[in-house]
């Protein structure tokens, strides 16, 4: 059986994701589609809208064959480390290819970009360093360095676009690892990453869907943009917890996590740097709501995403020392599978590059224990009564 891999968050699973999954199978000629999915906290430094089991259910009900979890250390990282973890897992589980959605829509510009940056990596890194020293954010520094090397010529991937950036890093990491997986991409359609919903369309960004729900507080506002199974899964999650994941929901616990420390102690948490710990502490002391808090802290140098990743690590207690101790994923955590996915795993079990783990009790190394802890902190923030769901939730199976 031929497998292709996709890297996802499904926050939540919408019609655009369904299109991506179906087109990925067509593009690669795969029999099985495997999703590496972020767990309870996401790459932009946010709690997931719904927990990982609900999002796994959405995936399986909409044609995904296997869902494996991207460990916390990679799921909440900046783009290159996010890609490093995801590509390592897809390679370990035996995918012959991977397919990502992009604003570019064609693979050749990404391959040309890789050849350019790989051939001038030292010069590229130096230009980024120089740009950062001027006080601009890291993403803007990367773009300035990239434009200096390309001369704004045609034929290269546009690395100002969020999905293009991730796509480039997927290819870069696959090349670094010497992975035999072939890269593919499909055009992102109808809605860009940050776009609000357009009531004349049936495809919207996950950002737009979440925004519409939180503004209106009604499933009716988002029903047209999601497959029916996804909507039903969200309704069940809401029935169980009476809330969805957001920093507004988590802010009382986050605020406590910040204020119980002295400002100097906040520096030990991952990504907290350059004296921003003082500003974070002062903002938490003054602001009763998350938007007021984040408004005090973000700046041209410290983007909202960068700050939110810091906050995620403060909330979960993830330190610089822990971050530096992890080099590569150490397991494949199975969250769910279809009947076809089960057959694939049985076929591949002797050839996998990492151990396949289906029970939280077997996550005994530091990376696995971190995933369990982060999940408990998510459940605490969402108001769950049972914080041990990791141990009572076997992989989902839809035969």
Automatic annotation (TrEMBL):
Residues the entry annotates as binding ATP: 7-20, 101, 163, 188-189
Main location: cytoplasm
Transmembrane listed as a keyword: no
Location(s) in or outside the cell: Cytoplasm
The reaction(s) this protein catalyses: cytidine(34) in elongator tRNA(Met) + acetate + ATP = N(4)-acetylcytidine(34) in elongator tRNA(Met) + AMP + diphosphate
EC class (word): ligase
Keywords: ATP-binding, Cytoplasm, Ligase, Nucleotide-binding, RNA-binding, tRNA processing, tRNA-binding
EC number(s) on file: 6.3.4.-
Record keyword Transmembrane helix present: no
NCBIfam families in the record: PRK13670.1 (NF010191)
Biological role stated in the UniProt entry: Catalyzes the formation of N(4)-acetylcytidine (ac(4)C) at the wobble position of elongator tRNA(Met), using acetate and ATP as substrates. First activates an acetate ion to form acetyladenylate (Ac-AMP) and then transfers the acetyl group to tRNA to form ac(4)C34.
Family, similarity comment: Belongs to the TmcAL family.
Protein name: tRNA(Met) cytidine acetate ligase
Organism: Planococcus shenhongbingii
């Amino acid at each position: 059986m031929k497998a292709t891999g996709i890297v996802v968050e499904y926050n939540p699973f919408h019609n655009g994701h369904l299109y991506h999954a179906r087109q990925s199978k067509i593009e690669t000629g795969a029999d099985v589609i495997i999703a590496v999915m972020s767990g309870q906290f996401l790459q932009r430094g946010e709690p997931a809208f719904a927990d990982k089991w609900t999002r796994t259910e959405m995936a399986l009900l909409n044609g995904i064959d296997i869902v494996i979890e991207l460990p916390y250390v990679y799921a909440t990282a900046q783009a290159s480390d996010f890609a490093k973890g995801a590509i390592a897992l897809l390679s370990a589980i035996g995918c012959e290819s991977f397919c990502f959605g992009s604003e570019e829509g064609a693979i050749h510009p990404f391959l040309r970009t890789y050849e350019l940056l790989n051939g001038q990596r030292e010069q590229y890194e130096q230009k980024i360093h120089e740009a950062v020293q001027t006080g601009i954010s890291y993403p803007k520094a990367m773009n300035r360095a990239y434009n200096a090397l390309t001369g704004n010529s045609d034929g290269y991937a546009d690395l100002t676009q969020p999905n293009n950036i991730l796509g480039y890093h997927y290819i870069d990491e696959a090349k670094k690892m010497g992975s035999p997986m072939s890269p593919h991409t499909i055009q992102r359609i109808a809605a860009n990453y940050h776009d609000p919903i357009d009531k004349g369309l049936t495809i919207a960004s996950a950002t737009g869907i979440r925004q519409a729900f939180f503004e209106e507080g009604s499933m009716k506002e988002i029903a047209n943009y999601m497959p029916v199974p996804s909507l039903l899964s969200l309704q069940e999650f809401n029935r169980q917890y009476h809330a969805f994941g957001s920093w507004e929901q988590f802010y009382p616990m986050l605020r406590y996590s910040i204020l119980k420390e002295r400002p100097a102690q906040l520096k030990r948490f991952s990504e907290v740097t350059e004296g921003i710990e003082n500003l974070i502490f002062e903002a938490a002391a003054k602001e009763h709501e998350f938007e007021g808090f984040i408004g005090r802290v973000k700046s041209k140098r410290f983007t909202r995403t960068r700050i939110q990743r810091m906050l995620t690590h403060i909330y979960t207690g993830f330190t610089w020392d822990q971050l530096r101790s992890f080099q590569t994923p150490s397991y494949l955590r199975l969250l769910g599978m279809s009947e076809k996915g089960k057959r694939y795993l049985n076929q591949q079990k002797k050839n996998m590059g990492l151990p396949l783990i289906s029970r939280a009790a077997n996550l005994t190394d530091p990376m696995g224990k971190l995933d369990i802890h982060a999940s408990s902190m998510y459940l605490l923030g969402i108001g769950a009564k049972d914080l041990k769901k990791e141990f009572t939730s076997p992989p989902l199976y839809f035969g």
